[in-house]
Write a structure and sequence with these properties.
The complex is a heterodimer of chains A (about 450) and B (about 350). Chain A is α/β, with parallel strands linked by helices and about 450 residues long. Chain A is about 45% helix and about 15% strand. In chain B, a hairpin with a 2-residue loop joins β2 and β3. The longest helix of chain B is centred in the N-terminal third of the chain and has 28 residues. The chains are: A alpha/beta (about 450), B mainly alpha (about 350).
Chain lengths: ~450, ~350
Amino acid sequence: MNLFRFVARLAAPLAAAATLAVSPAVAEEAKEQYFPLLTYRVGAYASSGIPGWGGIIDYFRYVNEVEGGINGVKLFWDECETEWSVEKGVECYERVKGGKNGSPVPIFLPHGDPISKALTEKSVADKLPLITTGYGRTEAIDGRVFPYSFTVMFSFWSEASSVVNYIAEQVGGKDKLKGLKIATVYHDSPYGKETQAPLELLAKTYGFENIQIPVPHPGNDQSAQWARIRQIKPDWVFLRGWGVMTPVAIKTAAKTGFPVDHIIGGIWSGSEEDVRPAGVVGKGYLAVTPFPAGQDFEILKKIRAEIVDKGKSDLKDLKSFGSVYYNFGVIEAIISVEAIRTAQKKFGVRPINGEEGQWGLEHLVLDETRLKEIGAEGLVQPLKLSAKDHEGGGSGKVLQWDGQKWNVVSKGWVASDRDLLLPLIYERAAAYAKEKGITPRSDGATN
Amino acid sequence: MSSIGSDAASDFIAATPDALWPRVRRALPIAALLAAAFVGAPAVGDDYWFNAILIPFLIMALAGLGLNLLMGYAGQASLGTGAFMATGAYATYNLMLRLPELPLPASLALGGVIAGAVAVVVGLPSLRIKGFYLIATTLAAQFLLEWTFNQYGWFSNYSTSSSISAPRLVFLGYDLSSPVARYLLTLTTATVVTLVAARLVRSQTGRIWTAIRDMDTAAAVIGVPVARGKLTAFFAGGFICGVAGALWAFAYLGTVDARSFDLDRSFQAMFIIIIGGMGSIAGSFIGAAFVVLLPILLSRVAGAAFGGAVDAGQLENLQNVVFGALIIVFLIKEPQGLAALLARLGRRLSSPSRR
């Protein structure tokens, strides 16, 4: 059995690794709030990630340097690279969840759909709230079943509904939707299929024809799908792409003669990085997003003056300033900071922990007044979260690509039919609770 | 292989008192290791060690072991590891969901059996084709199965995102949802499967596999049942990968969808055995340690040494460069894998003392 002796030798490197593992620091009156960041600066999705981390870090720097922290409690952070892979994400989560320098972790941003799924239960055990903006499980809107998952702002179901409502806005009302053909061209993956259920319900309600066309990963040849579209002649195409699939879809659509200004991209088909590779034919392409692009929002002007122009920005490429992904980062940072601020009101002005962060999120109210104070009017939609509603908003803006940049073309925020969708979401959450043996919390639970 | 052969030969000698001591001495390190893993680790480990290090390491070692039986011992190259893992995960999930009265080990084992059966079907072309062509057919299975689990809602109980989530892990009334319990579940499974595999490769079946690997025409000529041997290898490999997949889904991540078992996972398992050592049980574990743990170690060292001082993106790229360079260095030093390298090292260390 001498081969097992080599297994024994394995113990040596393991022991060496053990000494490197950071033991959780002993808490001693921490003055600063720790906020770990999971990032992907390498790997297939790095180009969309990097502007986002710039947005988060620039806003944190702005809060620290201009506002003197959150009520005086400064933020400090470090990055853990995930490459968008679930194992690395779980490792990072376990590495940072204990806090740092005496400060606990208030809120955790998984930045990756598979990572957020793998952390769904772990975060409940660790009492650490996850914010997933524009991704994650739709059922997690029901905070009674998913107490520590927050699909804040815009779930995929809201995305689908907002697109339908935008089309209604264009054709002159929801009653005009009857008889329209709306084709959804989607990435054939769990993410891509997520809008099938809401679209089916919306089609039944409004009487439009719901056509679903899958594109296999990665989607770098879509001639078959667009030939089919040419045959069906839909009035609108809802494009739920991922990575290279989006520019290829736009190019193929243009080639087959489908009007690009009748294609509406979803959240992950609506960034500069998605449409620029399509070249000139991308002009007129639409996309719905909770992260409107633009540099003219008050807070972006302030960040530009205080951080970017002073050479303190995390961005290497300043062209990304004000892009969809940069603004995504700023928005995520604003929501996190405001949740911490809300929690401080109840628990005291000090670094707060995950359980308190969860309370802060469930009592987060960002109304027009507060958004104006922050300077995020028009950038962040009004939000009101509760135990029963971890989404809180459910609206998106529709952007149009003019060949150089995105411009908002919808009349403000396009709301989704949440009253119609929520019962179905609650039903699915209840089914999940039953399967997992979870007893849902009561509506008014403050935990 | 010679070392395994001579060990096996010594096993056939009746355990006379004289021969007993060397066998006990040989078993000592593995006994010490098992004691450390079963008693020591739970006593000193924390969540980070279980959730981020030990559980994924053991599971990937198990997946590597499955592929090693198939590819390292029986010579049937396969890129279907991810698909077999997915089959095991989805099969176990459906067994736990639809037959809740089955105890957990039975669900796991049955999930493995289903994965093994699927692997046998995938392995049928191996009766006619070999080498790279066989890789292509297993690759087809990889894509087909991943697509199937994503496409048909029944497999995931019509979940919105086609993901499967572990029902409560309970065995004999004990709740296995804590990190330590999930670690012990993984460790126990890995230990049992590894011991069985170690016996298996020295049995008649294992010898048939090795004969097929070394030259299947010659094996057929001397009367080795080649077809049966290939298919048993696919079954054994698929079974172990299936169990690994179920553990990956339920003991490690909790919630997964088919993307967790994509082609990258198959490549990862293949790299584990190429780096660790093909045709070596220990090689699967050493390779898994290298592929799964070394990047984590590098990241922690880099973070401690340069964190904040160097641009985060460049630091990450640098780690990947170092990791890649290490793979090349080790494979040049020892193309037979780390297991052979360590064996050489072991011989060099132990021979002077014996003199």
